[in-house]
Design brief:
By secondary structure, the protein is of the alpha+beta class. 44% of the residues lie in helices and 19% in strands. The longest helix has 24 residues.
């Protein structure tokens, strides 16, 4: 069973962040410059929320426009679900699916150690299934026993 910590080892632990007071305009520029769809909203080392392209689109769809200096705190998602490095990839998939989210911060205690996406989780699950298939094929054909 693959764990979040294993996924982070292969992926690396990098993520991009802004502060709650960062303007939405500045945050959108970071999203574009870094070619990512989500930013963690951090106050020091504490995760305060997540700002995503979806947050921006939903706000514009409901309000029509935003002031240029609107802070991220006004439109971020403040309810942040997270996982630990010891949780399974299957648990992450279930959490993401049941809550319709695409990103999960990874916390060790109260410290942020990474961020995983639904794409990371799907790739890891497929990789695990491919290994299982190869092992079954080896068993069936006798390759494991020199046969």
């Amino acid at each position: 069973m693959s764990l979040v910590g294993d996924l982070l080892e292969g992926k690396g632990e990098g993520s991009w962040s802004v502060t709650p007071d960062t303007s939405v305009q500045e945050a959108l520029k970071v999203l574009a410059d870094k070619d990512v769809g989500v930013l963690l909203v951090m106050e020091g080392k504490r995760v305060m929320g997540i700002f995503s392209e979806r947050d921006y689109v939903r706000t514009i769809a409901s309000q029509g426009t935003l002031a240029e200096n609107t802070p991220v705190r006004d439109i971020m998602s403040p309810e942040v679900l997270y996982v630990t490095p010891r949780e399974s990839i299957a648990e992450c998939m279930a959490l993401m699916t049941s809550n319709d989210i695409r990103h999960l911060p990874v916390l060790q205690g109260k410290e942020l150690v990474g961020l995983i996406s639904i794409g990371d989780v799907v790739k890891e699950m497929i990789s695990g299934k491919n290994i299982e298939i190869q092992q079954l094929e080896n068993y069936i054909t006798g390759l494991l026993y020199g046969g």
